[in-house]
Give the backbone structure.
Amino acid sequence: MTTQPTCSRCCLSRRQCLKFLSMSALGAGLVTPSLEAAEPKAAPAKTDFIDPAGLRPRPEVRVAATFLELPRPYWLGWPGTTYDLTRHQKEYTALLSQSSQRTGVQTALEPQPVNSEAALNTWIAKVKAQQPHGVLVMLQHMHCWNWVSTIAKQTGLPLIVFAPVGTAFTGHVDGATRLPRVHVISSLEWSAVEAGLKMIRAKRMFEETRVLWIHSNQRNETVMERLGIKIRAIPRDTFNQEFDKQPATEEVNDVANDLGKRAQKIVEPKPSDIVNAARVYATAKRLLAAEKANALSMDCLGMVGAKLVPTPPCGAWTLLQDQGITCGCEADLFGAVSMMLTSYLLDRPGYMNDPVPETVKNLLIAAHCTSGTRLAGFDKPAAPYILRNHSESALGVSTQVLWPVGEPVTLVRFTSANEMIIDTGKVVSNVDTPPAGGCRTSVEIKMDNIEDCRDVRGFHQVVTLGDHRRVLEGFCELFGIRHVHSPQFSTFADGGEA
């Protein structure tokens, strides 16, 4: 293997890592002048190198924004005469500009606040003519709520309503949140507004995404309802045939070297297994680029069962997930879409898993043989991991990722394009195999608000670090997706079946 120095934060050579960070949307803000100056004459990447940043969709996202106020000066009525309108609007304007830069969302703020029916009608006509991808209104008086309904109905666009504390009662919020495609934020927490911009960005990323569905022997392309994702089915043999053509290039050896060096330890895999995992990584990038695709979902177990490849793709999928490229297991299309959601909306990888009830301790074990390591975010330090083989076949490389004990997690699963399961919990422990059987990454979770672990809904749920329930619910509200949760009280209480 090459001894070329590697970047400790990724699976590429230092030369390739610098190129990746400088071009990637995930690395925005990470490349400092001092780092760039350290290697001003870095050699260009080879022409056969495929930058993972180029595989991630980067669509244009436009949001129209305005303040809603009443004619000044204020007298009585919330937010009150003492509320400094000018100061607060300057503050929120600055915050909006900062959020726009961080998220890459173009926000067009109306120069003057809307403060009359005539001004409202003029602004709505302007929005309808421009057809942005979403709308943001920031309330500055409690008596502006009827305008929210008018905007929602006349534009028909996803609408984020920011109502700082002092501009809403529960009745206002309750009524507006029941309008279709409206997400209401009644808070002083600006971070929720930025999360709203990411919701609109995530939907646009879905619309610009093509998923390779690698299974069966068919080739066709369809578009998923509501989300707008392009689904390109290609024959399963395409992947193993491309893998057979993939040599152990300099990049492959760099990737293999780095994957092994960063592991806490290596248990079963041999050096040749790690090189094969890196070959899968390079093969997946080549195939995605050739098909002009951004994500994939593959019948990996079928390929392993048929002995078409010498290694399951688990280790390679870990590497790609950490770089924002969704690679789903077992040709589970909605599992992959759920992983794309955590990537596009929450800026972190998701972990698709098989759910196992631990009935003595009343916990859920989330188990699979591949998980991203950048659990807290693509630009955050990686979690420790151990290199294992694939437990079901004893082949190749899989990662046992050690999730942080005591940290909250969210479980999310699209059951269709129109429904999402959302649950939350907390990591209790990481389960070793052996003594347990099953998949290498196995995480014990104490579920929130679920009396019995047997009642957790869904299969191949996607676990992601952090409590993101409210953000995911907001995404559903903006785009007309029904969100459901596992039952709080046990369906087994009467001895019946779930």
